[in-house]
């Protein structure tokens, strides 16, 4: 939303400078994206009148002018085609400095003296709205500085609004906020109804009242097609980023900016039969104002007449009924279209307009009559004509009703951490336009005004109280710690903790869409139909992901296409798994992807590719963060992962995730390298953590014994380590695998696993006999479970 500061201050003018006002708006939730001057700096330009003109004797395209600037008459040579006697224009005197540090000097042009320069919009650093000189109104005061006359010492403000604050997509809406925040008057201009001077009406029907609960129309006859939009309106439109077109279109754009109500004007002579607001039928065509023709699908809201579609409701008018230079009679419309009827429709046809932007987010359903009177008055003032009565078709059953919300001072204190005085709560709500009814001490029923359609629950009211009271005035307090209970033994690892752990191991966090390409989803889970979006933002993002690998692999594709040689990515987010019928499992997951060298390039480290065990070490570090045991890696097959290089991760017998190398066939299908490794873990399994507890350090010596066992090659090392722990008691402090060997001296089909066992007693030194007994127990247990034998 762009607008100029002086326009805003006409509605609400607090005693704040520009910087303070912008900070206040941002802190109130209306984030100011930028502030820029309304015009580039220049000096020495005044309003002047062209008194006489004559052809240049030596140049066909130049004109000799006598220009009066209030202090004297000066000869000026001008090349503009629209220069003529009586014209009032900006005049740069000798000594003036124009944008770009262009200095005006006395000169001779083709032998004729020129004491200054007549200026167009482009010479003043404004948008080049007019071909030639910038024509000023006939009553422009000669000699007045042009910066003062055009109010160019102004600022253009751009505000970035969240979707719920569509009520501020107008100068009126933002001024209402400024008035509330500063307790200054809200100077809304009086908009009186325009009495009809004609009896003419045009028939209107609404066949889709649920999509268009209110539609207003008005006939205006006899406008002057040669009328010009006044300069003050042109300037306000320019500063809002809109180009002037003709008075009728300019007025509808002006009302949109001023009040927030999109409007449209049809050429009455081009309408055929009654106007009907209805839904489109498959295959209907509409030529739009921007020159393109679209083929409509079922369900798009249209404005039609007997000949067919004449406008796409809430989006853009049709070329066949548009206002032109020859238009003398108008049919002016103002409507309320339900947001759900407009949302996504413009984008589905590749369109986005100021009108659709507002209707998608919501327009005040009580604003249409006011906007109609405002636009009518402006058109009659600028272009003349006569207006008929307003025709209104409304369906009260489909119009949105203001929400009534229960609010209590106790709830406000609980959410904000501060007890606002009851009188302040009531005062703020009333200034926001809320109707409040006190139901008890510190309790109210609040009815939101028609323009605050974002008000639905108590928290919405509390948020507004915080905005107006001031976020920076809310206290910062640490939560009270409740003591005296039983010692906590378990906790949850936060998402931030898990992110920090992954980043510490060299990973970068990715954030991808929860909706993904159907082709990618089909490749990863061909037997699991995903949830399809009813209104996707594009065909490449049309289904909900059932695995975070979809986003990570897409990210890998883009990075690899840009010559990235090493990737270590992770993401936390939801996966959406259909459970049959309408049931949908939304499960938090953590997933990762690894490609390239195991470590960053370094002169003291020989480069090698990351392998399964590098990634497994990262996953083990993640699993160990919570201090829980019971995780196991089991060889298993997964459609996405390489057979023989994949593992199911289980916790207490329940599946906790997967780890492995990308399946070669899938890598080829996705045009990805084969040496990509993936893992995905259920956060419910890994975020449960034991609270660390101090254990007393022993001052007794530890004893280590290294044992090498020969076992069948299919025996997992993890199972062997678990069996060792089970065979020993608390005196076993650590068991570690430090060597795996197959080759000479080892029977084919078997392998040697070397284990380091560390024993320690807390209160005394272990005797050799005790250590021997422990070793004997280990050997016996492994022989019994795995047919293991000590390696000679």
UniProtKB/TrEMBL annotation:
Q: Which reaction does it catalyse?
A: tRNA(Phe) + L-phenylalanine + ATP = L-phenylalanyl-tRNA(Phe) + AMP + diphosphate + H(+)
- Residues forming the B5 domain are 400-476
Q: Which residues bind Mg(2+)?
A: 454, 460, 463-464
Q: Which UniProt keywords apply?
A: Aminoacyl-tRNA synthetase, ATP-binding, Cytoplasm, Ligase, Magnesium, Metal-binding, Nucleotide-binding, Protein biosynthesis, RNA-binding, tRNA-binding
* Gene3D superfamilies for this protein: 3.30.56.10, Bira Bifunctional Protein, Domain 2, Ferrodoxin-fold anticodon-binding domain, Nucleic acid-binding proteins, Phenylalanyl-trna Synthetase, Chain B, domain 3
Any GO BP: phenylalanyl-tRNA aminoacylation
Q: Which domain of life is it from?
A: Bacteria
Is Protein biosynthesis a UniProt keyword of this protein?
A: yes
Q: Where in the cell is it found?
A: Cytoplasm
The terms describing its cellular component in GO are: phenylalanine-tRNA ligase complex
Q: Does the keyword Cytoplasm apply?
A: yes
Q: Which CDD domains match?
A: PheRS_beta_core, tRNA_bind_bactPheRS
Give the InterPro entries listed for this entry: aa-tRNA-synth_II/BPL/LPL, B3/B4_tRNA-bd, DNA-bd_dom_put_sf, Fdx_antiC-bd, Fdx_antiC-bd_sf, NA-bd_OB-fold, Phe-tRNA-ligase_IIc_bsu, Phe-tRNA-ligase_IIc_bsu_bact
> Where does the FDX-ACB domain start and stop, copy by copy?
698-791
- Domain TRNA-binding, by residue range, is 39-147
- SMART domains in alphabetical order: B3_4 (SM00873), B5 (SM00874), FDX-ACB (SM00896)
Instruction: Please state the protein's primary subcellular location.
Output: cytoplasm
Give the Gene Ontology MF terms in alphabetical order: ATP binding; magnesium ion binding; phenylalanine-tRNA ligase activity; tRNA binding
| First-tier enzyme category under EC | ligase
Of which family is this protein a member? Belongs to the phenylalanyl-tRNA synthetase beta subunit family. Type 1 subfamily.
Q: PANTHER family this protein is in?
A: PHENYLALANINE--TRNA LIGASE BETA SUBUNIT, PHENYLALANYL-TRNA SYNTHETASE BETA CHAIN AND LEUCINE-RICH REPEAT-CONTAINING PROTEIN 47
Subunit? Tetramer of two alpha and two beta subunits.
Could you identify this protein by its name? Phenylalanine--tRNA ligase beta subunit
Q: Which organism is it from?
A: Isoalcanivorax pacificus W11-5
What lineage is on file? Bacteria, Pseudomonadati, Pseudomonadota, Gammaproteobacteria, Oceanospirillales
């Amino acid at each position: 939303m762009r607008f100029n500061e002086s326009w805003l201050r006409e509605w609400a003018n607090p005693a704040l400078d520009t910087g303070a006002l912008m900070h206040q708006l941002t802190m109130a939730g209306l984030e100011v994206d930028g502030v820029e001057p309304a015009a580039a700096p220049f000096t020495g330009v005044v309003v002047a009148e062209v008194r006489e003109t004559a052809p240049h004797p030596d140049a066909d395209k130049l004109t000799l002018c006598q220009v009066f600037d209030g202090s004297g008459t000066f000869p000026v040579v001008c090349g503009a085609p629209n220069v003529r006697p009586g014209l009032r224009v900006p005049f740069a005197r000798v000594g003036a400095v124009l944008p770009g540090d262009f200095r005006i000097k006395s000169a001779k042009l083709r032998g004729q003296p020129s004491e200054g320069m007549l200026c167009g919009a482009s010479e003043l650093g404004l948008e080049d709205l007019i071909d030639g000189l910038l024509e000023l109104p006939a009553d422009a005061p000669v000699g007045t500085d042009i910066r003062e006359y055009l109010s160019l010492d102004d600022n253009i403000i751009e505000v970035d609004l969240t979707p719920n604050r569509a009520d501020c997509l107008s100068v009126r809406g933002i001024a209402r906020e400024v008035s509330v925040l500063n307790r200054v008057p809200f100077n809304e201009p009086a908009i009186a109804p325009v009495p009809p001077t004609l009896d003419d009406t045009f028939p209107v029907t609404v066949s889709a009242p649920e999509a268009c609960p209110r539609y207003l129309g008005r006939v205006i006859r006899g406008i002057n097609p040669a009328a010009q939009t006044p300069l003050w309106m042109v300037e306000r439109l320019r500063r809002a980023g809109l180009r002037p077109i003709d008075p009728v279109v300019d007025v509808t754009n002006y009302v949109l900016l001023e009040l927030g109500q999109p409007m449209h004007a049809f050429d009455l002579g081009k309408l055929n039969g009654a106007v009907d607001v209805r839904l489109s039928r498959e295959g209907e065509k509409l030529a739009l104002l921007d020159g393109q023709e679209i083929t409509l699908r079922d369900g798009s809201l249209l404005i039609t007449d007997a000949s067919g579609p004449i406008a796409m409701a809430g989006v853009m008018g049709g070329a066949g009924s548009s206002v032109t230079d020859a238009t003398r009679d108008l049919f002016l419309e103002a409507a309320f279209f339900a947001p759900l009827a407009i949302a996504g429709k413009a984008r589905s046809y590749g369109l986005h307009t100021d009108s659709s932007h507002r209707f998608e987010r919501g327009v005040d359903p009580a604003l249409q009559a006011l906007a109609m009177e405002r636009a009518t008055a402006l058109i009659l003032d600028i272009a003349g004509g006569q207006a008929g009565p307003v025709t209104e078709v409304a369906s009260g059953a489909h119009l949105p009703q203001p929400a009534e919300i229960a609010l209590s001072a106790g709830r406000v204190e609980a959410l904000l951490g501060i007890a606002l005085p009851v009188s302040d709560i009531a005062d703020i709500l009333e200034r926001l336009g809320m109707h409040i009814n006190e139901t008890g001490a510190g309790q109210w029923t609040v009815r939101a005004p028609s323009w605050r359609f974002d008000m639905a629950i108590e928290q919405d009211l509390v948020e507004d109280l915080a905005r107006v009271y001031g976020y920076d005035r809310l206290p910062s307090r640490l939560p009270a710690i409740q003591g005296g209970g039983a010692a906590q033994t378990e906790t949850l690892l936060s998402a931030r903790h898990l992110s920090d752990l992954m980043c510490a191991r060299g990973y970068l966090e990715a954030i991808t869409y929860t909706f993904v390409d159907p082709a990618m989803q089909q490749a990863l889970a061909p037997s699991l139909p995903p949830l399809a979006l009813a209104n996707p933002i594009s065909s490449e993002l049309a289904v909900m992901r059932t695995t975070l690998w979809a986003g990570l692999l897409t990210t890998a594709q883009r990075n690899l296409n840009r010559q990235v040689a090493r990737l270590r990515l992770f993401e936390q987010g939801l996966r959406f798994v259909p459970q049959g019928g309408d049931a949908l499992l939304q499960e938090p997951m953590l997933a990762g992807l690894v490609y390239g060298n195991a470590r960053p390039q370094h002169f003291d480290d020989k480069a090698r590719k990351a392998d399964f065990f590098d990634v497994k070490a990262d996953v083990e570090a993640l699993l160990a963060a919570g201090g829980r045991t019971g995780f196991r890696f089991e060889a298993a097959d997964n459609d996405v992962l390489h057979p023989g290089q994949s593992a199911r991760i289980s916790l207490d017998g329940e599946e906790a995730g997967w780890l492995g190398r990308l399946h070669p066939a899938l890598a080829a299908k996705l045009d990805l390298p084969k040496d990509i490794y993936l893992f995905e873990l259920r956060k419910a399994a890994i975020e449960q953590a034991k609270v660390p507890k101090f254990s007393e350090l022993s001052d007794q010596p530890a004893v280590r014994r290294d044992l090498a066992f020969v076992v069948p090659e299919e025996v997992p090392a993890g199972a062997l380590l678990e069996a060792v722990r089970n065979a020993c008691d608390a005196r076993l402090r650590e068991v570690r695998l430090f060597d795996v060997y197959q080759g000479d001296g080892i029977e084919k089909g078997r392998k040697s696993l070397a284990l380091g066992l560390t024993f320690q007693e807390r209160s005394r030194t272990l005797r050799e006999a005790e250590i021997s007994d422990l070793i004997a127990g280990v050997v016996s247990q492994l022989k019994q479970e795995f047919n293991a034998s000590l390696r000679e």
